[in-house]
Specification:
Distance between the termini: 49 Å
CATH class: Mainly Alpha
Number of helices: 6
CATH topology: 434 Repressor (Amino-terminal Domain)
Order of helices and strands: HHHHHH
Number of domains: 1
Structural class: mainly alpha
Strand content: under 5%
Shape: globular
Number of strands: 0
Largest sheet: none
């Protein structure tokens, strides 16, 4: 198990997984329940928090046999935005917003063209 291989207790992982930017809190007890199989399908938010605490991409914690490669990339991108976006400089955030607006407009145009 990755956590034990890294020598991290469930409590330490819970503390490392906490973020000032979201309300999600994962306890050491909940981590034990996930590891024991008592919790079958933790949410993506929980997986992202645990990945943050372990310092790995969220795709490492998910059964990738069930996911397509693009879905894994999407999960990693979502995890990046969740963890790194608050750390970006305002000018970089502005550039990202501009890029996202361009992508939205393109998607909107493609959707309308298909109608």
């Amino acid at each position: 198990m990755l956590r034990t291989n890294l020598g991290i207790s469930p409590e330490l992982l819970a503390m490392r997984s906490a973020s000032e930017n979201d309300d999600l809190s994962v306890s050491g007890g909940y981590i034990r329940r996930i590891e024991s199989g008592a919790v079958k399908s933790p949410t993506l938010d929980t997986a992202a928090a645990l990945a943050r605490g372990l310092g790995v991409p969220v795709s490492v914690l998910i059964d990738t046999d069930e996911l397509e490669e693009e879905a894994i990339k999407d999960l990693d991108l979502a995890n990046f935005f969740r963890t790194e976006l608050p750390k970006l400089k305002e000018e970089d955030k502005k550039l990202l917003r501009h890029s996202i607006n361009i992508i939205r407009e393109k998607a909107k145009e493609e959707y309308n063209a298909e109608k």
